[in-house]
Amino acid sequence: MKEFQCPSCREPVSFEHVACANCGTQLAFDAACIDMRKLGPNQACRNREIIGCNWCVEGADWYCGSCRLTRTTPDLGGTRNIMLWRRMEEAKRRLLYDLRRLQLPLVSRSGAQVTFDILSDDVNPILTGHLAGVITLNLAEADDVEREARRVAFREPYRTLLGHFRHEIGHFYWDLLVNSTTFQAPFKLVFGDETQDYQTAISTYYSRADRSYDRRGFISEYATSHPWEDWAETFAHFLHIVSTLDSLAGLPLSLDGRARQTLTDPYFESDFEALLALWVPLSRGINELNRSLGMSDAYPFDISPAVKGKLHLVHMAISAFRDQQKLAA
């Protein structure tokens, strides 16, 4: 994510800040112009006090554009659930920032709005997933201990809240960017036949004893379960890449001219090879820094030629969609 500045003193502020640590100015993120500004009268989201939402409202709305997308909130009877919901909404706002930068809509071709159900499994088990634009997330995933236990149980090298959001929205964008478009045939060629029975494929995936998989062909083990999941995993990794490169743009590093050109706006970089040329050494560097601090790799994945081809298809589908939208405007 790009670096923001306090509109009063110009000191750096983070995407989550509600106030400048240097001068105390109350801050609000304006999603329309993708920038931080002073919080004006009647601009505070109603969730600002309860979960620290720092997005400003639009017009006479009580809630900001991010909070309005949460269709169902968890039971807020206890402080723990409020804390976990806060983490959920912080991750969701980062996802929406990604989508805004990519100029991807939050409505389907039929006009259905993307919405989020954030549910607690205190009574009934909640499965994180996507169905027709509705993204359901289990509140327990915001608990670091619970999420780490699930990561180990499912033998996943990486499991984060933001990763969940980016993966599930990937299913929505398969419908928008690939299904019934000129990219459907290339998708079948690169990812496989998505018409195979989904529930059977998922059941087979979870019941198999052998957890080994072709690491040259898939970005993760879960990507092997079905072509739709392979797309969602790959879409999430594309967002990981452009978002991290966007953060790199604000660091005091010595880069060549082509790299600086890419970092002007990684979300709009038309040359996929230029993105990867920056990402590969950056991801290795991040991992080495983590190891120096005694931490696990931040990006424990290798981008093989096959995975590179899949990422490239995601990039092409997004770029083609934007071009079509410009022509239609």
Automatic annotation (TrEMBL):
Pfam family, one: Peptidase_Mx
Domain Zinc-ribbon as annotated: residue spans: 4-76
InterPro entries cross-referenced by the UniProt entry: UCP012641 (IPR031321), Zinc-ribbon_6_bact (IPR011201)
Protein name as catalogued: Zinc-binding peptidase
Organism field: Bradyrhizobium zhengyangense
